Fold:
Amino acid sequence: MTPIRLATAGLVLLSAPALGQQQVPAWAQGRPDHMAQSTLAPHPPRMTVTAPGDVPMNRLRVPQGFRVELWAHGMPGARMMALGDQGTVFVGTRVIGRVYAVTDQGGSRSHRILAEGLTQPNGIAFKDGALTVMAINQVLRWEGIEGRLANPGTPADLTAAFDMPPDQHHGWKFTAFGPDGRLYTNIGVPCNICTFDRDRFALIVSFRPDGSDRRIEARGIRNSVGFDWHPVTRELWATNNGRDWAGNDEPHDTLHRIRRSGEDHGFPWCVGMWADPAMERRQCSEFEQPAASLGPHTAPLGMRFYTGTMFPEAYRGAMFIARRGSWNREAKIGYDVVVAKLDAQGNVTSVEPFLTGLLDEQAQQFHGRPVDVLQLRDGSLLVSDEQNGAIYRVTYGG
Amino acid sequence: MRGIRSGAAALAAALFCAPLAAAPEQAELCAACHGARGVSALEDVPSLAGQPETFLTLQMILFRERIRRFEPMNAAMRGIGDAEVEALARFYAALPPARPETAPDPERASRGRALSARHRCGVCHLADYAGQAQVPRLSGQREDYLLHAMRDYQAGTRQGTDTSMQAVLYGLSERDLADLAHYLATVPAAR
Structure:
């Protein structure tokens, strides 16, 4: 019996199209033969403290009239940010497994480690006094968190209710509450390029805050690690990371406008009108088209609409987008914050550099990796830098 | 003859490098298992000498934060500050890597070499397996440890700073892993 069952299992495996792809690292899947000798590989993270004097403040550039300061530091791996009712900034991480809380006392900031030892707690959301943290296949919630930052205690474990896939690759989450009160998150695809269950992966999904009533908000989005809602139309907008190993300039990473729940944005077959040569051919026009290109391999992550009044009129209602920067491209690109501006119909009219200077193009070296943006109540803008464990604050005037 | 020559070279290198870096205080504790010069004589305990500094730093942080679980290392790293971690990493990275002591079994080494080529180990670990940045040196590493590490990655009981190792080892047999470990542990270190 055993040999027969083994043979059957073998046949099933052989007929699965993903088999060949799983034999190489997920980040190397879909690599054409002419790139087989490429030495491009993901950049190493930094998980030790960067001293404030070593944070490259003198490299940072913002448009005229703006200023940028070092707002908080000493938090290795700082990534996604969420703002508490009392002004606490909660910060998620990936590999180092921590959640930080930054508080401001009379103009100086201190931080504490709220949680540690988690599996990539990248998803951070705050609502009604509670902090929700999404790690890989783990959902935790601390009620009344700002009243007990020094001793947060044991969180409620909502993991079973949310029932997320356990896959590590692209399994880290962006998390936010929508204007409808539901909790939204991404479910990335557990490969570079492959066929997969399109009801399970490459999605943005929403839940009731207790984890019930899962709904697919967007389909065919390979891995979105940043989204926000238009302040007027309440439409969901999301950044998306295109696949690797299709060349230096293909495909582009993208910005998506999700007009209706459940729309299909084309992964794994299409990015806009670009049909992936590794996949079966499909008519790309049958899918929703991206609202804008954010450049090839730039890794656009956290994004928020600007709803403040501190910045000039031209920035109000625009989106700030952090681009962590490329690894799968011979000439590095990104490592900045861009601003995408819209017209009255919600069409993207421009994508312009906003915070730059962390990429030394001539030396092909990067000095920081912006991951998220967050508007404070005074209208200033925070930018997290994962590589330096720092948060910058951008102000205008004054 | 060859063994003697490489042994002499290692000794010369050790003597030459010794004054360059004074051992940090914690290294005394490390030495009990990893060897005074970062070359392990214990089964399943890795050699640290000549590993990339970034790799050593990241792994010590993963142990300290209990993301990588191994109780003796979790205990050893508890409360160690970032600056001390970085000093230890600098110290071990500067030590000369071990040279393979045993001659390879030609058949197993050749199988391991073919597997390494097919799975492109050399893309990240480099063609001479000296490692780079967050990617460890494989040449000069203990064969039993290499096998142990690959089993852990394959079983998902060890996490790296990304998921590459889980993905690359998917579907390899126990014999594949053993032959890979044999080949990598006996490949002559170019540097």
Notes: Confidence is low (pLDDT under 50) at residues 1-22 of chain A.
